[in-house]
Amino acid sequence: MRPGEMAGQSPLSTLPAGPFRFIALDVETASRDSASICQIGIACVRSDNHIETFTTYVNPEQSFAPFNTELHGISAETVATAPCFPEAWGQLKPLLQLHHLVQHSGFDSKAISAACRAYRLPNADLSWSDSVKIARRAWPEFKGNGGHGLANLKRQLRLSFRHHDAGEDARAAAEVVLLAEGQLGQSFDRISGTARKAQFSLPLQQP
Predict the structure, then answer these.
(1) Which end of the chain has the smaller Cβ count within 10 Å, N or C?
(2) 197, 125 contact by CB (below 8 A)
(3) pTM for the full predicted model
(4) CATH numbers and ranges of domains, the chain
């Protein structure tokens, strides 16, 4: 499966238009402070499994730790003209709160909540699923054999993406879910691990 995508650091006005089956989301941070979001990426999965990705830098309005910059390549100079979190979140939230969201581990939802608290914004009422848990169900043999992190899943499942770029990691998480659907013979609604119903949840389009 090689889904198509729209990649790059795009203006917020170019957000993909839904509805979608689900949306995978990933963030990068400027430091150990989980509220220091400096990049947000989403991967939107349509009913035919076509993936559209969107990525934006975010100015965290705080210092970058050298370790983080070395990891993802984003610095204060990179985000100097980027929107701060309230602006970026204000435009992303209406799309995200209508859909089931996928994160790879629990870090991304915690970072979004931390950033909302830091800026005294209302916490979004979002529906989250964890693609790590989904991958554990689909490929239990990876436990103790590299695990279910994106780096090992990239090798085991032959995924092609640039790790520690929010848009690329979001697309990888979406692809993990799509492959898990085939591996388990179940739809996302069955393997999502949440009883929460999003407003938009499109079924898989059968060929």
Answers:
(1) C
(2) no
(3) 0.87
(4) 12-191 (3.30.420.10)
The position carrying tokens 């309230």 is: 86
| DSSP per residue, 59-114 | B-SSPPPHHHHHHH---TTTTTTSPBHHHHHHHHHHHHTTBEEEESSSHHHHHHHH
Report the amino acid identity of residue 149.
G
pLDDT tens, position by position, 7-49: 345 566 688 988 999 999 999 999 999 999 999 999 999 999 9
3-state DSSP percent of the chain in helix, strand and coil, to 5: 35, 20, 45
> How does 140-164 read in b/e, with b if 16+ C-beta sit within 10 Å?
eebeeeeebebeebbebbebebeeb
The answer to whether the CB of 23 falls within 8 A of the CB of 99 is: yes
Q: How many CB atoms lie within 10 A of CB 97?
A: 14
37-45 and 51-57 strand pairing: antiparallel
Cβ atoms of residues 2 and 179 within 8 Å:
no
Q: How far is CA 105 from the centre of its chain?
A: 10
| Residue with the two structure tokens 């100097």 | 80
Q: How far is residue 133's CA from residue 29's CA, in Å, rounded to a whole number?
A: 23
Summarize pLDDT for 70-124 with one digit per residue, the tens.
989 999 999 999 999 999 999 999 999 999 999 999 999 999 999 999 999 998 7
In 3-state terms, what secondary structure has residue 133? helix
Instruction: Give the C-alpha separation, 128 to 155, whole Å.
Output: 25
